[in-house]
Amino acid sequence: MSRFKVALFTGNYNHIRDGVSLTLNRMVKFMLENDVEFKIFGPTIDKPALEHTGDFVAVPSFSLPGRPEYRVSTDLSSEAKRHLREFEPDLVHIATPDVLGYKALRWAMDHEKPVVSSYHTHFTSYLKYYKLSLFEPLLWKYLNWFYSHCEQLYVPTPSMAEWLKEMGVVADLKIWARGINTDQFTPENRDEEWRQELGFKPDDVVITFISRLVWEKNLKLYSNVLNRLMQKYDHVKALVVGDGPAGEELKQILPNAVYTGFLTGDNLSKAYANSDIFFFPSDTETFGNVTLEAMASGLPCVVADAVGSKSLVDHEENGYLAPVEKSDLFYLYIDKLVQKPGLRKKMADSSRHKAGGYSWQNINGKLLSYYEQVLDL
Question: 4-179+359-375: what CATH class?
Answer without folding.
Answer: alpha beta
